[in-house]
Amino acid sequence: MRRKDFERDGYIINSITVSDLKQAEKEEAEHRKISNPRVHLLRKHVFAVSRRIMGSDNYRGQYRGFIWGTCLCLRGPSLWITINPSDTHDPVAQVFAGEQINMDDFFPDAGPDSNRRAQNIAKDPFAAAKYFFFIIKAVLSTLFQIDVRGNRVHSGMGMLGCISGYFGVIEAQGRGSLHVHMMIWLRHTPNMHDMHVQLQNGEFRTRIKEYIRQNIRAHVEGLNEETIRTMPRESNLPYSRPPDPDSSNWNIENQAIERRVVRSQQVHTCNRATCLRFNQHGQLVCKRRAPWLLSPTDIVDEHGRWNPKRTYAFLNNFCPAITTTLRCNNDIKFLTNGRDTKDVTWYFTDYSTKKQNKNNNVSALMAGTLLYHQDHSNHLDDVVERNRLLLFRCQHSINREMEHSGPQVIAYLMGWGDAIYSHHYVPLYWFALKSHLLRVFPELNSNKEK
Q: Which of 116, 130, 343, 348 could form a disulfide with 112, with the two C-beta atoms 3.0–4.6 Å apart?
């Protein structure tokens, strides 16, 4: 409101009529460009206001700059991970929901049954949201060995290596539970040119294969198409504790739980409700690109193309450490700092800042708001103050129509937001920077080509 252009535009906005917005409503409904420049101006200021409102499209749009800024400082990302914690069945979530569960002496047969666990989470979105942020922070600090304290990032050698930064965007599934898509930057990662040079070295590719074998899998020994069909899918498996690493039988227990979780959580089934979509040729295809490429072993070639060992085409990638610790669905992709890094980074920034689904006509909402505003703002003589109140009301009329799950609403109310990241970001205002440079270096004014 303090910008000079708002005071200038205020008189134009003040002249907008309900009929102007009704016409814009018809054009928007017919997916045509809005013809009235005054309505364009109002929408511009309303959307500028929404940039400061958590959960709005314009607020999420700034994540694009955060991601590219991180890439400028830390080079390209090394890993892309999706973690989908099972809030319905995880005993930690049930503790947050108020259940009395002894986590030090845990028995899967004791405590609430699956129906009660689902009811606990459904009626307590605060517990679901608190569990999600707690468990993701626990994964980052324990498995990945990275902590953010104030303005400093402290990292050690974790399961995936030494991490220098991360950026994750949080979303809700159809049933309302939260999950995160995260990009991870590993320390001392070669730049694109050095990586391509190193990939010509067979010993370097062998090291990458070993890293993939340890951290990115799409195969479990003894788990093939036949055994997958015969093994039961255990939906209640997350209601358990991970194997105790101090146990003498840890290796056997860990392999057993990995096999069961992979069967229950990582096998992909294509259907119209989840992933099947029509492509431009009218063919029904899986948006997750299943079935995936089979490979008898872990593969990395001279161009950075890689594949984990996979003997069943519908078994999705998974990180063993996350699989056995959280007993939940997850996905992981290794980026070789080449074309795939560029593609995934573009995809992730576009996906994380995509516009949320809307079932409303913005111009229609503004028309109703303007009608109300004209009847309830006669006491204001100042044009700027009248327009400030109009933008306030327009923004709230739009916000009321946004669909959020209970845990998402709690995350916004508590200030947890819909993104987690390791670094702090400061906006750069290029016009102010340009003016400062011209003051410090006046010769730039006289030499525009330079």
A: 116
User: Do 326 and 366 share a structural domain?
Assistant: no
Residue 269 CB neighbours (<10 A) = 9
Q: Are residues 246 and 322 in the same domain?
A: yes
Range of the domain at 379: 4-55+356-417
pTM of the prediction? Answer: 0.85
- Is residue 237 within 8 A of residue 261, CB to CB? The reply is yes
How many other C-beta atoms lie within 10 A of the C-beta of residue 449? 3
* pLDDT of the residue at 352: 62
How far are the Cα atoms of 1, 213, 248, 315 from residue 298, in angstroms, in the given order?
58, 7, 30, 15
**Count of domains observed in the chain:** 2
Closest by CA position to 88, among listed 110, 116, 109, 108? 116
69 domain-assigned: no
Residues 265-295: tens digit of each pLDDT: 999 888 887 788 888 888 888 888 888 999 9
Beta strands in 134-223 (DSSP E): 146-149, 152-155, 157-158, 161-172, 178-186
Domain contains 23 = yes
105 lies in the same domain as 247: yes
Residue 162, strand partner residues: 157
- Measured CA to CA, the distance from residue 447 to residue 438 in angstroms comes to 11
